[in-house]
């Protein structure tokens, strides 16, 4: 199988301080990859660099064989990568429905299966809230909304930054259900998380990042068995 | 100060109608220019100090187009369209380089453009006042409303300005493109991450803002004289209106423009030597009561 997303030697700086020290990642079609690591390990920075939100100092990011390091976020999105940021970033004054509509576009090969009505089907709680300003949703509702918003762009791959952060267990489990359903349909996903239990339930593979470097990679069963890695890097 | 005269005017229907109409057209012309300024600031977070230049160029281009084509409709469209095109080049070539930078850098870039185009206008059209005059289509007897004189051109101006105001507000809040613009005003990075070409969006918003100023200049040309440097006082008025209405608010710009126009219309009767002073007083009162302006929000 060929890699959908291939990151190599990725280095990112914020001003003078280096955050990522040569990240290598390879994600194949249909994989749900968990990017696990402690607070401040560099998960969000990795996601932002892939999404084009921060510019890398060095390294390559290839998506579907196309080099995209240094591209603007909209160019990355148009290649089929949808980014859901850690702090969600709903458009607070726009209604739930408008948040979805602003994101509507065809996929890179003209895919158009995701529509507002299909979002209502997979995330029924959103339909009841369709006319409410997104700023007045709960954290879990906002998380569902931004996942729906990402899907509206008919992406070929999703980048989710801490989708379970700060959410009630019941909401986390329903987001887990959605991710499993997407995985069953063959979606390719990269999830940055601190919540390992959540990832054990949804991911097929895992990498662990620590101090800006990848320190471990295996399939999810391997991580489940590896108490040493878990205690050393994930504080579990 | 002549409060008697003001009292007499307000209690006479004909004077009331005349002053209200002239105040309204002054206000609505100002609105067109200020709406462009506030739109550009609200979305791009750039203070366009060259906005008065668009107004001036719109007027001069309309002047020449009217001479050549003898069609005032074409003249107005030419003034607006030329400024839309000019705005795209100006934004891409210059403003795009100072996004997020010190406002002094923005001022410097814009001020250079102001000076260059004031001189270019002198070279092309001369340094003297030019009068476009009333377009032939409007050289007809005035309307009398309750004894007050209303030139038909004024009625048309008010109509056009209101249509533009409504179209602008409706397309911002009622269309997908407009909603995307409003979202980009608050969070351009996220809008970009959803696949919207925000560079192009910003250029288009800038062009619309520039076109509004150009339209304002073209529509004002028959009732005002053209002179190099005429953009400056309009720029100041637009800033006042933007500050009173709230930076970035179209509705605020409309309300404040009409208010400023009416203060001018009636101020010239009651306070002939202090008309501009009244406007500053109004601005100070609004700012004391609402520091972010009538419809402004806290700027983070
Ligand atoms: N804008 C910024 N400017 C400077 N330093 C930053 C910035 N954003 C993040 N950092 C630093 O970069 C490092 C990595 O941050 P990052 O957000 O990538 O971590 P993370 O793994 O996502 O952590 P968390 O689990 O808390 O979300 C941290 O030390 C953080 O303080
Ligand atoms: Mg993070």
Please characterize this protein's 3D structure.
- The complex is a heterodimer of chains A (236) and B (300).
- Chain A is built from ten helices and ten strands.
- Chain A has 236 residues and is of the alpha/beta class.
- Chain A has a single domain (31-53, 72-234), classed as Rossmann fold.
- Chain A has a six-stranded mixed beta sheet with strand order 6-7-8-3-9-10, sandwiched between helices. A four-stranded antiparallel beta sheet of chain A has the order 2-1-4-5, covered by helices on one side.
- The radius of gyration of chain A is 17 Å and the shape is globular.
- Chain B has one domain (3-132, 139-289): ABC transporter involved in vitamin B12 uptake, BtuC (Orthogonal Bundle), CATH 1.10.3470.
- By secondary structure, chain B is mainly α.
- The mean pLDDT of chain B is 92.
- In chain B, helix 1 crosses helix 11.
- The chains are: A alpha/beta (236), B mainly alpha (300).
- The complex binds adenosine-5'-triphosphate and magnesium ion.
- The site of adenosine-5'-triphosphate has 12 residues of chain A, from helix 1.
Distance between the termini of chain B: 42 Å
What is the gyration radius of chain A calculated from CA atoms?
Answer: 17 Å
- The SS-based structural class of chain B is mainly alpha
What is the structural class of chain A? alpha/beta
**What is the CATH homology-level superfamily of chain A?**
P-loop containing nucleotide triphosphate hydrolases
Q: Care to count the β-strands of chain B? A: 2
Strand content bin of chain A: 25-35%
CATH topology of chain A: Rossmann fold
Whole-number average pLDDT of chain B? 92
Per CATH, the class of chain A reads Alpha Beta
Please trace the helix and strand order of chain A, writing H or E for each element. EEEHEEHEHHHHEHEHEEHH
Q: Class of chain B in CATH?
A: Mainly Alpha
Tally of alpha and pi helices of chain A: 10
Name the CATH architecture of chain B. Answer: Orthogonal Bundle
Please give the most extensive interface between any two protein chains, plus how many residues each contributes: A-B, 25 and 18 residues
Can you summarize the main beta sheet of chain A?
6 strands, mixed
Overall structural domain count of chain A: 1
Mean pLDDT of chain A: 93
């Amino acid at each position: 199988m060929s890699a959908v997303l291939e990151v190599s030697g990725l280095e990112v700086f914020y001003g003078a301080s280096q955050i990522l020290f040569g990240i290598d990642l390879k994600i194949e079609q249909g994989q749900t990859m968990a990017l696990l690591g402690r607070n401040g390990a560099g998960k969000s920075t990795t996601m932002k660099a892939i999404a084009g939100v921060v510019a890398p100092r060095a390294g390559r990011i290839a998506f579907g064989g196309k080099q995209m390091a240094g591209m603007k976020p909209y160019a990355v999105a148009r290649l089929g990568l949808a980014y859901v940021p850690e702090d969600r970033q709903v458009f607070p004054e726009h209604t739930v429905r408008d948040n979805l509509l602003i994101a509507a576009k065809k996929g890179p090969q003209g895919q158009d299966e995701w529509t507002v009505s299909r979002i209502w089907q997979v995330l029924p709680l959103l339909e009841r809230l369709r006319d409410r300003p997104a700023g007045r949703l709960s954290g879990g509702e906002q998380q569902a909304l931004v996942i729906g918003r990402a899907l509206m762009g008919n992406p070929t791959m999703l980048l989710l930054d801490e989708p379970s952060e700060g959410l009630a267990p019941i909401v986390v489990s329903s987001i887990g259900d959605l991710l499993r359903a997407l995985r069953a349909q063959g979606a390719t996903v990269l999830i940055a998380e601190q919540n390992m239990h959540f990832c054990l339930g949804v991911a097929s593979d895992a990498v662990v990042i620590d101090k800006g470097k990848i320190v471990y990679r295996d399939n999810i069963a391997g991580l489940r068995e590896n108490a040493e890695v878990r205690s050393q890097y994930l504080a579990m | 100060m002549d409060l008697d005269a003001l009292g007499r005017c307000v209690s006479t229907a004909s004077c009331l109608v005349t002053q209200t109409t002239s105040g309204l057209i002054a206000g609505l012309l100002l609105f067109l220019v200020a709406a462009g300024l506030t739109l550009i600031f609200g979305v791009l977070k750039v203070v366009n100090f060259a906005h008065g230049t668009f107004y001036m160029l719109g007027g001069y281009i309309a002047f020449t187009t009217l001479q050549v084509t003898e069609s005032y409709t074409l003249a107005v469209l030419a003034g607006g369209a030329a400024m839309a095109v000019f705005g795209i080049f100006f934004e891409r070539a210059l403003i795009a380089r100072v996004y997020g930078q010190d406002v002094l850098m923005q001022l410097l870039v814009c001020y250079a453009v102001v000076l260059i185009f004031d001189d270019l206008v002198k070279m092309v059209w001369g340094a003297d006042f030019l009068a476009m005059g009333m377009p032939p289509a409007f050289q007809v007897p005035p309307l009398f409303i309750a004894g007050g004189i209303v030139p038909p051109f004024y009625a048309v101006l008010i109509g056009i300005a209101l249509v533009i105001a409504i179209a602008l507000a409706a397309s911002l809040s009622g269309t997908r493109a407009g909603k995307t613009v409003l979202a980009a005003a608050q969070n351009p990075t996220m809008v970009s991450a959803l696949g919207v070409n925000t560079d192009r969006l910003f250029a288009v918003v800038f062009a619309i803002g520039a076109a509004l100023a150009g339209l304002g200049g073209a529509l004002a040309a028959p009732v005002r004289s053209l002179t190099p440097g005429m953009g400056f006082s309009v720029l100041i008025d637009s800033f006042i209106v933007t500050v009173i209405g709230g930076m970035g608010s179209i509705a605020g710009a409309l309300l404040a423009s009409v208010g400023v126009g009416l203060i001018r219309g009636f101020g010239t009767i009651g306070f002939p030597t202090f008309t501009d002073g009244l406007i500053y007083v109004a601005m100070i009162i609004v700012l004391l009561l609402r520091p972010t302006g009538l419809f402004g929000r806290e700027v983070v």
